[in-house]
Fold each of these.
Amino acid sequence: MAINITSSWLDEFPARVAELDRAHLRRQRRVVVPESGARLSIDGHSMLAFCSNDYLGLAAHPALVQAACAGAQAYGVGAGASPLVSGHSAANEALERELAAFVGLPRALYFYAGYTTNIGIVPALVGTGDAIFSDALNHACLIDGARLSRAKIHRYAHADLDALERELAQSDAPRKLVISDAVFSMDGDIADISSLVAVCERHDALLLLDDAHGFGVLGPQGRGTLAAAGLHGAKASRRVLYMATLGKAAGVAGAFVAGDEALIEWLLQKTRSYIFATAAPALLASALRASLELIEQDEWRRTHLQKLIARLRSGLTAGLKDSHWQLPPSQTAIQPLLIGRNDEALAVMEALRARGIWVPAIRPPTVAEGTARLRIALSAAHTEADIDLLVEALTALAKHTQAQRQTEPTY
């Protein structure tokens, strides 16, 4: 008997997309082509870009391009299978050894993507009956990994280590996993690594630290937030499982996790996003090995970046003193400019775009309601003149916006 379906839930999607438009929450992809320095061609228009996580300006470095080409010539452009079948090339093996040595931990495991690293390793570590303690501002990949694990999730207020300690003390779970960003991706602040490790020591917990935005940028020779906290090499704690992405400051793609030998072996055996996914192509590992050398040697990139951060903050602090926009504290390449309303953040983004400057507006659900912002990402590829141009444009727009707000009717 035929069933007459007059309507379907699939018919809801046009209205649901329209609702995103009304709430100023619809996202758009942009077609980009790299240009010189910190410039991108975006939808066919040359723009000064403050949107990339290429913090050291390495993504287009000739040494990385040459290494990738050499890797492609030696290995081809595909891995062919998962790492546990035939996808683990000699280049991938060498990269893992070099990554472990670079961050001062016994062993490293190289993944094809950062997001899939965290959503895979968290369920491999804990499960039903165990407990996860998650910072409220953690990245989505940590949150999703926690949900997939089926462990009980305790969400503590951002950077509130007293609350974390209370939660840990009250838990009777056999396995306790604390998960935290090292540099928080939307606010740019840095976790108190030493205190997190100490709390985990007191409560027999393991700390999974996501250093996506600190690796290559922070610490001596860019060795990351663990090294910046003095927990490098022999001083590293077995309580720490260190994860970092390789598509940001390293300028390529993928991610790795490093830690105790037995812990990494367990992850190799049990992480589904590692076992059942095709390995990263060897040409990427070849490029990353070249990137590691530059990260270690080119201290001027981090020095220059720190000067740009200070210049931007000084300029905006002066230029926005009469504005309702806020510039929260951040010593990192991530500089959030809080605007508030979704529509206003989009309007400022478009006004900058009209001036040839591209800074993305970040809105809920990526950030909390009422905290829409511009996420200004700085790179060693920027110049001081680039920073001055952005500060001048934002100062002018802030004055214009403030004047508009003062003329709005009140009820």
Amino acid sequence: MLFRQGEPASGLYAVVHGRVALTTRSAGRERVGEVIEAGRSFGEAIMFLEKPYIVGAKALTDALVVHVSREAVFAELERSPGFARRIIAALSAKLHAAVRELDLYALGSGGQRFAAWLLRAAPAAQDGAAAVTLPASKRAVASRLNLSAEHLSRVLRELSTEGLIRVHGRKVEIPDTARLREWSERPRRA
């Protein structure tokens, strides 16, 4: 456990290797909000607001995570305009991703949400075949998409039966991304 929801924000974190889950707890249930992989950071926005963490963070695997104190970040911002621009760019990219995430949740069915998420996670997101390795367990991915694990299992079966994906453990192969995109954008009955 790196920190718990509600603890004071002390700085930002960078994942060198491994995976870290950002979680929220509500009504006694924990939900995975995001999985942070090597090369990414987290905690910047809340650090600037000087408010408590709105999520918890815990390693999902063996991980090396670097903590940079708020004081060190603020001192470097004063010294380096280039560093300030990189921080602003990183926060802007996260805001853009959050807006895209809201679009994802606006889709009708759980199958559409998963298909859209899968297409966004696909490398280069171009037409043709692609493969995505789920960043965490299927249960964690389901939680991220606001689905039950059972619902995600039904979605995986449906997409597999229709030949839109092939599942091998945590690896999901997409034989034709254009076909999956067309399926995900098709209007659904309520």
Amino acid sequence: MPETASRVLALLRGVNVAGRSMLSMAELKSQLDASGLPDVRTHLNSGNLLLLPGSTDPKELARLIQQVIRDHFDLQIGVIIRTREELEDVVASNPLLEPGVTGTQLHGIFLAETPDERQVADLDPDRSPPDRFVVSGKEIYVHYPRGSGRSKLNLDYFERTLDVIGTARNWNTVTRLSEMLNRWEPGVSGRR
């Protein structure tokens, strides 16, 4: 079995959400297999891929996945890569984990690159009380005590202000993906 350190998570931005950018995860998995990325595993229908990129650079891997999606599905989709270690660090470093806060109230926003500090300073912490956020490197941790649906601290706001693309997952999904990436045995059949 390959070392767990080589396992990565590819997060697709905005697929299968509200009827937009519909993309069959099973079909995508098949196309990625055919493109030389064997043993791709999916989780949920919202664009979460676990894979073994070999020695492929994360930016090159993101470009490859984007190209497969463009060529076979005619969609322009952002792809954000995190290694197993990076995802473990995200889970271990959440500054908003507190007693009484649920996994559905917390979200992790994964950015394609580290935003400029001046743009981070432009984010308004009082934009949507009682919601709050913390920017840490290429991640934004967000707490939505009343849910994320009506918050003004949405992905669009963060992307526009920071001038960086991103994708969001609720905390239950983030922790589940980290667990899956750590337990996954490539080459062993299982739920995909």
